[in-house]
Amino acid sequence: MEHFEITHRDAMGRIAKLETPHGVIETPTLMPVINPNVEFISAKEMKKFGASMVITNSYIIYRSPQLRDVAIEKGVHGLLDTDLAVMTDSGSYQLMVYGDVEVNNREIVEFQKTIGSDIAVPLDIPTPPDSVITLAEEDMKTTLEREREAAKLFSNEKSLLALPIQGSTHPELRRKSAEEAVRITEEVGVKAIFPIGAIVPLLDTYRFVDVVRIVLEVKSVLPAWAPVHLFGVGHPMFFAMSVALGCDLFDSAAYALYAKDDRYLTPYGTKKLAEMHYFPCSCSVCSKYTPEEMRRMKKGERARLIAEHNLYVCFEEIKAIKQAIKENTLFELVEKRIRSHPYLVAAWRLLREEKYAKLMELLDAGMKQTFFYTGVESLYRPAVTRHAERVKRVELNGKEFVISTNMLEHADLYLRPAFGVVPAELIEAYPAGHAEMPPAEYIEEEALKVAVRNLLDFLKFHKDKKFRIRAEDVWKPHLNNLPPNATLE
Ligand SMILES: [Zn+2]
C-alpha cells in the first residue's frame, strides 16, 4: 500500500515508512498517550524522548465544551500544541469500561475528521476475553458495520483510518474480523492501519500465550502491506516479541499510569520504586537522582520524573529492536527478552506449532550474517528447518560417506547440534557454518534431538547410499535407531 512502505525485514518484523498528513513516521514506533484534560508531559515535549506520533482521545475532547471549541478552531494539533502526527481514539475504551458512551459512530468519526486527526478510529466494540462466541460475533459485526461507515467518510482522504480487529479470544473470529477489514479498505479505498483490539485485559493477567495466538491468527490473514497496531500495549518487555510477530505500532498510557503508581519500567519487567536501591539506567533522570532521593520528593514531581524515565526506556527498546532488524538479529533479541518472564517464554513457544512455524518461515527474510544460539527457542528459527530441507536434497557423488561429529576431523559430512547434517563444502556457509553454539556436551539435549531427527530424515532420503558415522560419546545415546544404510563406528 502506498502509505506503508517496508524497507527492512527480519523474523516477521519490519522497519517501514508510514505516511501521515504530518510527515512520514518510521515504524516500529510507540505513540505516547496524551490526556488532553491532564497536564503531565505535553505532546510538545514528546519529541525529545523519540516520539514521532502521539495518541489522544477524541471522545474526551468531544465531551468537554472547552476542549471541543479549541479543537474545532485550531485542530487537534493546535489543541495539543504539537506538529507531531496525532492519532485519535474514539471512546471505545470508555465503552468497554463504562458500557456506554454519549456519541454515535458517525458523530465521533466526523468529529475526528473535523479536528484534523492523522489517524482516526471508529467506535469499535472491544469484546472482553472469553466472551461467548455468539456475543463476540454480534459485537464484531457491529464493529465492521461501523468501520464501513467510517471508511466511506474517509475515502480519498489524506488522513488514515484505523480498522480495529476484534473477536475476543476466538481465533476464527479474529481472522474473519481481519479479512473483512481488509475487504473494506479494498472496496472503499481508504488508507488503513489495523489495530488488534481488546488485548489489554489479557496482558494485565499475564495471558501472553493468548495475546500471541491472537496476533499470529490475525497475521496469518493480513497481507504484508497492512500496518498492525497492538492497541494498548505500552510495556517495553513486550515490544521485541510483538515486533518479531509483525506488529508495527504501540501506544502507551503505561508510562504515565505506572509512574503515578511509583512503578519503574525496564525491558525486563516492572520495578517498584519503594524496593529499588539503584537505577539500572543512565537516562537523564536516572543519572541525576538515586531512588532514595526520588522517594523523598513530592509525589507530583516524582511521578513526572519516573514517567520521563519510562518514556526513555521505551524508546531505547524501540531503537534496539530497529537496530536488530537492520542487522538481522531480531530472533536473538527476542530470545533474550522472553527470559524476563516464564509466560513470555511460553508465548514464544507457540512457534513450535506447525502452522505458526510455517507462517514465520514464509515471512522471515532468509539470509542473515550470523546464527547466535541462545537456548532451545533458537531451534524454532526458520534457519534450522530451511537448512535441513536444503541439505536433504544435496547431490552426493559416490556410494559411501563418512559423517563425523568432530569438526576437526576430516569427513564428507558433519553432524552439528540443531542443524543435523552439514556437507563439508557448506561448513563455512550460513547458517550451520556460521552458527555460534555451545559444544554438543554442553548444549541442551533438545538441540541434539533436533539434529538427529534431521540426520535420520537425510539418511532415509539417501537410502541407496552408505554412511559410516563417527560420533563423540555425547551423541551415542541418540544414535541407536539408525536405518540399515548407516552404521555407528
Ligand atoms: Zn532511566
Please, how many domains? Answer: 2
Main sheet characteristics: 8 strands, parallel
Q: What does the oligomeric state look like here? A: single chain
End-to-end gap: 58 Å
Strand content: 15-25%
Total beta-strand segments: 20
- The average pLDDT value, as a whole number, equals 96
Bound molecules: zinc ion
Widest β-sheet, arrangement of strands: 6-5-4-11-10-9-8-7
- Annotated CATH homologous superfamily of the largest domain: Queuine tRNA-ribosyltransferase-like
pLDDT < 50 stretches: none
**Shape field:** elongated
Instruction: Supply the CATH class of the largest domain.
Output: Alpha Beta
The CATH topology of the largest domain comes to TIM Barrel
Proportion of helical residues: 40-55%
Could you walk me through the main structural features you see in this protein, from its secondary elements to its overall organization?
The protein is of the alpha/beta class. It folds into two domains: 342 residues, Queuine tRNA-ribosyltransferase-like (TIM Barrel); 123 residues, Archaeosine Trna-guanine Transglycosylase, Chain: A, domain 2, CATH 3.90.1020. Strand 16 and strand 17 form a beta hairpin. It is built from 18 helices and 20 strands. Helices cover 41% and strands 18% of the residues. The strands form five sheets. It has an eight-stranded parallel sheet. A five-stranded mixed sheet has the order 17-16-15-19-20. Helix 5 packs parallel to helix 6. The site of zinc ion has 8 residues, from helix 13.
